[in-house]
Automatic annotation (TrEMBL):
Domain of life per record: Bacteria
Protein name listed in UniProt: Histidinol-phosphate aminotransferase
E.C. number: 2.6.1.9
GO BP, sorted A to Z: L-histidine biosynthetic process
Lineage: Bacteria, Pseudomonadati, Pseudomonadota, Gammaproteobacteria, Lysobacterales
GO molecular function, one term: pyridoxal phosphate binding
Pathway: Amino-acid biosynthesis; L-histidine biosynthesis; L-histidine from 5-phospho-alpha-D-ribose 1-diphosphate: step 7/9
Domain Aminotransferase class I/classII large, chain residue ranges per copy: 44-354
Pfam entry (one): Aminotran_1_2
Cofactor(s), by name: pyridoxal 5'-phosphate
Catalyzed chemical reaction(s): L-histidinol phosphate + 2-oxoglutarate = 3-(imidazol-4-yl)-2-oxopropyl phosphate + L-glutamate
Gene: hisC
Signal peptide: none
NCBIfam families in the cross-refs: hisC
Subunit structure: Homodimer.
Length: 365
């Protein structure tokens, strides 16, 4: 069986040349009159920093991201956050009205949203709620993919909202079983907070794996919208031809390059370590509170928490200005809230508010 992941593309897009923008034509010159840009800078941009269209894939950014993620620059495509990468994969690989994606709920909602927008079916293989946290039934998932016309399998690891880290050997085995049939996409938005290796390490042996990474979480650049898909170089080239032009605004690229310099990276590592320590402190405190049914183990920068009365916990936090994520509408999570990790002071405030709610509930009882 041919394991070239390019063959997983929609057949009508395999020879698609894409749009050739003025900036993608690599030419030397002094006077640039090829893109119909303004002749003078905007009065809001006196130095003219954003007068020109940006490079679609700036070499300096690709090189720094590749160094950070442990891959080659040609294996990487940057874009408008992981959301664009998800949309691009669905659009490029799945035939509307024919193919399907597979997801493992409870999971990140954008996989199904993108599929719906492109007329692609979503097949579910639910996670199992075990004493050790949520886990994936890889055998059942593979059976589901083989039974349906699934072209993309989305695995969120660490999971959102589950917080669970999926084992790399089982991801690799799934990819091997689905070779030539489907692309296994591992969304690692929270991997910096995990005590485990990235699935990027599997790309050398399993060509039908793609990994999503982002600068939105650990690197604190959520508004800059810098996400990355890492995969086989041939597939990356094909995806770039399907990407809308100019996906990376110049100011956002500048922010990313500054964040990926040595000193900021060291600061990010230190802050990530603090977040991981705070995660354990907050989890331990919540487990000791009356009214808290369960605090799930987490390898992300949040905790998934079940409550006897999730509405009272949500409202009580909101009354003090603390906003958490209500995930009760998600499958299997009818009594749960997702609480992001804040600063030590913010985490202490969460503990204090929930303790107060628990005391009031005890008095009322």
């Amino acid at each position: 069986m041919n394991d070239d992941p390019v063959l997983l593309l929609r057949e009508d897009l395999r020879d698609f040349a894409g749009y050739s923008s003025a900036r993608s034509e690599k030419r030397d010159g002094r006077v640039w009159l090829n893109a119909n840009e303004a002749a003078w800078p905007s009065v809001a941009d006196g130095e003219g920093a954003v007068r020109r269209y940006p490079d679609p894939q700036p070499a300096a950014l690709r090189e720094r991201l590749a160094r950070l993620y442990g891959c080659e620059p040609q294996q990487l495509l940057a874009g408008r956050g992981s959301d664009e990468a998800i949309d691009l994969l669905v659009r490029a690989l799945c035939r509307p009205g024919g193919d399907a994606i597979a997801i493992t709920p409870p999971t990140f909602g954008m996989y199904a949203v993108c599929a719906r927008l492109h007329g692609v079916r979503t097949i579910e293989a639910p996670l199992r709620d075990t004493p050790d946290g949520f886990s994936c039934d890889f055998a059942a998932l593979a059976d589901t993919v083989e039974r349906e016309a699934v072209k993309l399998v989305f695995l969120c690891s660490p999971g959102n909202p589950s917080g669970s880290l999926l084992p790399l050997p089982q991801i690799a085995a799934l990819a091997r079983r689905l070779r030539g049939r489907a692309l296994v996409v591992v969304d690692e938005a929270y991997i910096e907070f995990a005590e485990g290796a990235s699935a990027v390490s599997l790309l050398g042996s399993e060509r039908n794996i793609a990994v999503l990474r982002t600068l939105s979480k650990a690197h604190a650049l959520a508004a800059a919208r810098i996400g990355t898909v890492i995969a086989d170089a041939g597939l990356i080239a094909a995806l770039q031809r399907c990407q809308a032009p100019y996906p990376l605004p110049t100011p956002c690229v500048g922010l990313a390059l500054r964040a990926l310099a040595e000193v900021p990276l060291n600061t990010t590592k230190a802050r990530t370590a603090t977040a991981m320590s705070e995660r354990e402190r907050l989890a331990e405190a919540l487990r000791g509170l009356p009214g808290v049914r369960r605090v799930y183990p987490s390898q992300a920068n949040f905790l998934l928490v079940r409550f006897d009365d999730a509405q009272s916990a949500f409202d009580g936090l909101l009354d003090t200005g603390v906003v958490v994520r209500d995930v009760r509408a998600a499958p299997q999570l009818g009594d749960a809230l997702r609480i992001s990790l804040g600063t030590p002071e913010q985490n202490a405030a969460v503990i204090e508010v929930l303790s107060r709610i628990a005391r009031r509930a005890g008095v009322a009882a």
